[in-house]
Amino acid sequence: MSAIAGIFNYGSADTRRAHDEGISLMGSLSRYPADDVRMWSNGRLFLGCHAQWVTPESIGEILPWYDGQRGLAITADVILDNREELANQLGVPLAELAELPDARLLLLAYAKWGEEMPRHLIGDFAFAIWDESEETLFGARDFTGNRTLYYNDSGARFAFCTTIAPLLPLDGVGDKLNEAWIAEYLASPSRLETVDASSTVFGRVKQLPPSHCFSIRGGNLRLNRYVTFERASTLKLSSDKAYQEAFFGGVRKGGRQSIADQQGSGVLLERGDSIRERSQVWRQENCGEGIRCCIPTAPYRWSPEGTGRPKAGLRTSVR
């Protein structure tokens, strides 16, 4: 995944401060590997991206990107799963889609739907878009929260970043702990989220909750939930076979979209997953390729904190 950062001095005429604090944010991200690092600024606003080129269409992508014709700038950490559907809705020829990065699709979607655009997106994303004509900074986080976006709003400056640590050294932020968050965690350490979905372990840093968007216009920060669970429409087909074909068609489509990358693909199969269907999709999409399978053996130990040492206990077989 990529890392993004930004500073918006909406309550100050100091054009140098946004640049200097933005440089500080990007410097803190240098510990992470990246294929490209770029920054963009217009005075009061700074956008940065510590980019990793994961998908084929992301190779060589320039982020942040400024569209002078539309007066829009974007920085994004995004992998879209419904690219073809969006292309059809946005009038993008499929022949051009393979060369169009996901962030450009986001800009086209914003140009068409405005702040309603996150409702049309399927995938993993966190992004910020600057709209010159509306003098608005708009951003969103994906439905399931697979991408993160942390922020601090001081009342005159809005700072955001993919990770928390780069925000802490900024003026007015600091590392003062959020005692309410800690107390809630200690009372129920198995819970992944707190009652206040925007709170974090640090008192002056919040997170944009999953399925939420933000906008800053006229000095006012506004957060909205852009999608909620709704009753799905009933699918009515003529036979059991038709239902079966529709189901596996959806599995194949989702499989193709979720395993697209530029360096080869892999599938993590776990208990509870539809293993046979997912692995068949992978094999069909990689027809003719050798399939390398890794299975855990002693002394492998799964760790919920991600601290296990899987390489020490994986036996590899080639099929």
Automatic annotation (TrEMBL):
Tell me which UniProt keywords the record has, alphabetically: Amino-acid biosynthesis, Asparagine biosynthesis
Which InterPro entries does the entry mention? ASN_synthetase/amidase, AsnB_N, GATase_2_dom, Ntn_hydrolases_N
Enzymatic class: ligase
Quote the EC number.
6.3.5.4
Report whether Cytoplasm shows up as a keyword of the record: no
Where does the record place the Glutamine amidotransferase type-2 domain?
A: 66-168
Under Gene Ontology molecular function, one entry of this record is: asparagine synthase (glutamine-hydrolyzing) activity
The reaction(s) annotated as catalysed by this protein in its Swiss-Prot or TrEMBL entry are: L-aspartate + L-glutamine + ATP + H2O = L-asparagine + L-glutamate + AMP + diphosphate + H(+)
Which biological processes are named by the entry's GO terms?
Answer: asparagine biosynthetic process
Q: Which pathway does the protein contribute to?
A: Amino-acid biosynthesis; L-asparagine biosynthesis; L-asparagine from L-aspartate (L-Gln route): step 1/1
Q: Which Pfam families match?
A: GATase_7
What family name appears in the similarity comment? Belongs to the asparagine synthetase family.
Q: Which PANTHER family match?
A: ASPARAGINE SYNTHETASE (PTHR43284:SF1), ASPARAGINE SYNTHETASE (GLUTAMINE-HYDROLYZING) (PTHR43284)
> What's the protein name?
asparagine synthase (glutamine-hydrolyzing)
